[in-house]
Amino acid sequence: MTNQHKTLPMWQVLACGAAIVTLSMGVRHGFGLWLQPITQAQDWTRENFAMAIAIQNLTWGFAGIFSGMLADRFGAFRVIVICALMYALGLIGMAYSSTPALFTATAGVLIGVAQAGTTYAVIYGVIGRNVSAAKRSWAMGVAAAAGSFGQFLMVPTEGYLISTFGWQEALVWLAMATLLVIPLAWGLREPGFAGGATPHRDQSILQALREAMSYRSFQLLMAGYFVCGFQVVFIGVHMPSYLKDQGLSPEVASIALALIGLFNVFGTYIAGSLGQRMAKRKILSFIYLARAVVIVLFLLAPLTPMSVYIFSATMGLLWLSTVPPTNAVVAQIFGVAHMSMLAGFVFFSHQIGSFMGVWLGGYLYDKTGSYDIVWYISIALGVFAALINLPVNEVPIERTPSPAAA
Amino acid sequence: MHTRFLPWIRQAFIGLVCVAVLLGVLSLYMQPVFLLTLANQVWGCF
User: Fold this and answer.
1) Which residue from A212, A273, A327, A332 has the highest number of Cβ atoms inside 10 Å of its Cβ?
2) Superfamily of domain A3-197
3) 3-state secondary structure of A8
4) Neighbours of A73 (CB within 10 A)
5) What ipTM score was computed for the predicted complex, to two decimals?
């Protein structure tokens, strides 16, 4: 057996991949905790901080395409190691930046690129190449659940670090924690990429890209993922203000965050596991429709702490549960040779949706004095995404052999 | 039957450990001081 056909043990891919995603997704999720200490210590505005985080999110989406290409071409190990170093460097820069521009370059651009190389798209490429199709969706569910767990775990952990060491030293501790990704990445060194080798691929990057972009089901998946980003980030960012406007205490919003985080872990795992037994397009359609229904019920029901908690727990179940089925469908349709790049493209669409959700939420609130219109848009988009996922064709593409290969 | 029973126990054990860890983390959120910090700060950006 040549190195090309050797694979890593599934437990090793899952253990190392899940631990990496736990760290990389978790660390950035608690960045909001630094807003007050940094802006107060540096005498910056909230806009300075928010701008860096907005750029981080967009960079994450955009750089995901290229980190995916590199991971497919040179192996995930190299990309993860370089991006883990960038993550640590970005966190140190976040701690010691003396100007908003430097802060944006480190906390925004550097960490955004680092996230692109240490999160789902790159890890899912390794899972796609090393886990059999029979268990792939489940394995993606495990990795997504690990990322959700990281988000859930790291917020209180980072709160503890700040209160114990101060905001600056806490960032240094986090930088050291992200370096743990490097030994973990060692477990994702794929035999097919050993010694600088590149596995044979039937398509070049351009061919794969052209095929995916002109394929209707890929376009539909991208559109659906846009909706996912829009809804999740609109609710994540604007719900506290909405609850405050409605007269609920800030503690209700905090408990809501905890419940979303807790149920998100279950939701992502369940969606991945179901993807092994059911058509993924039906799972995705159900998730988007369920989101729309849950939002409608939330808006119709009398607003109380209990209704917020029920809404949060239910939305938590549906929060990142789109991640495993969406990526598993991409692998199923197009194969795994360009998996990380294509996952990167789909994720870019997600991040554009995220940006629109935050921006439109703020813009329409300023214009109309309420979030009503954005809630309605979220409902309409949920129904739209539910409908467009139904015709997705999950059958693997049949290709005629091509002489050109990357 | 014995060979079927063992994986079932193992899965149940893993499931229980996961639930215990998740509830442990949830209890961190519910500490009053942290709850207030979170209320004031974490929703500031996503």
Assistant:
1) A327
2) MFS general substrate transporter like domains (1.20.1250.20)
3) coil
4) 18
5) 0.78
